[in-house]
């Protein structure tokens, strides 16, 4: 195991990297047409706030103040268009209020809404805040009402499943999740498991940490043994979201799920198209 000396070294390297980034944010910073990014939702999501006991999204030790860095990038690169994605709860945070006011002050028209991937051809029911800020006078005709569906959604989850053998080691009892569900219900937390047969026309969110096997994310139930279930494969994850599977080739299952769990770039492409 790595000792604390390695941890201090890693933290020092991160600090050096941040100093380098901030040095770039000067007069010589290249100007760009579009900035697309998602501010971390760790302190804003329902699960994150419940787990950490946060009263405000901005209270998160690591992610709470990162919106300031995002605004610094906007100011330094002076993009014509700014795209921001986050959980829908972020719309009502103090951070979003600051973002909204700063962008207006810098000469942007700011458009906000909540979109669900399921409405645009994805099997995943993933509601996200989407903010599009356009330089005043450039996008007078922009409207979220003009968004169009560019993918036909499959009729059910079974259509995207891999032929996983019934005796494959991916089928597991996940007894710790079953026990956690009982505890959560007894505590009135309202968090339940998503155990799917494949006949459903959609599923809940698959996050970037999906490979960890977390309690509220979807699992497929074994066809002949109801005590067993499995996670979606990275390829299935890509199909659920409508992501090109080539993006996940050559990486592990864990890394593949991490890639598939981040949608900002694809969301931007669909908005701009």
From TrEMBL:
InterPro entries: C5_MeTfrase, SAM-dependent_MTases_sf. One of its GO terms (biological process) is DNA restriction-modification system. Pfam families: DNA_methylase. It comes from the Bacteria. One of its GO terms (molecular function) is DNA (cytosine-5-)-methyltransferase activity. It catalyses: a 2'-deoxycytidine in DNA + S-adenosyl-L-methionine = a 5-methyl-2'-deoxycytidine in DNA + S-adenosyl-L-homocysteine + H(+). The keyword Transferase applies. Keywords: Methyltransferase, Restriction system, S-adenosyl-L-methionine, Transferase. The active site is at 41. Belongs to the class I-like SAM-binding methyltransferase superfamily. C5-methyltransferase family. This is DNA (cytosine-5-)-methyltransferase.
């Amino acid at each position: 195991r790595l000792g604390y000396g390695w941890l201090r070294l890693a933290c020092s390297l991160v600090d050096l990297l941040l100093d380098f980034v901030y040095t770039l944010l000067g007069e010589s910073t290249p100007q760009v047409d579009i900035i697309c990014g998602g501010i971390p939702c760790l302190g804003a999501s329902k699960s994150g706030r419940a787990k950490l006991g946060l009263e405000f999204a901005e209270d998160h030790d690591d992610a709470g103040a990162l919106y300031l860095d995002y605004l610094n990038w906007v100011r330094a690169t002076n993009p014509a268009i700014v795209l921001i994605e986050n959980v829908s709860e972020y719309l009502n945070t103090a951070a979003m209020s600051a973002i909204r006011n700063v962008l207006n002050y810098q000469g942007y028209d700011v458009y906000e809404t909540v979109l669900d991937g399921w409405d645009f051809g994805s099997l995943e029911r993933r509601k996200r805040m989407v903010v599009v800020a356009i330089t005043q006078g450039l996008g007078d005709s922009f409207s979220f009402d003009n968004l169009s569906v560019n993918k036909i959604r499959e009729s059910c989850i079974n259509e995207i499943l891999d032929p996983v053998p019934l005796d494959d080691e991916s089928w597991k009892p996940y007894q710790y999740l079953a026990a956690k569900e009982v505890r959560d219900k007894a505590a009135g937390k309202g968090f339940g498991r998503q155990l799917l047969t494949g006949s459903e026309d959609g599923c809940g969110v698959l996050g970037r940490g999906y490979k960890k096997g977390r309690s509220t994310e979807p699992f497929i139930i074994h066809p002949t043994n109801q005590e067993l279930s499995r996670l979606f494969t990275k390829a299935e994850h890509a199909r659920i979201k409508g992501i090109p599977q080539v993006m996940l080739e050559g990486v592990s299952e864990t890394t593949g799920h991490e890639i598939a769990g981040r949608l900002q770039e694809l969301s931007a492409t669909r908005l701009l198209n």
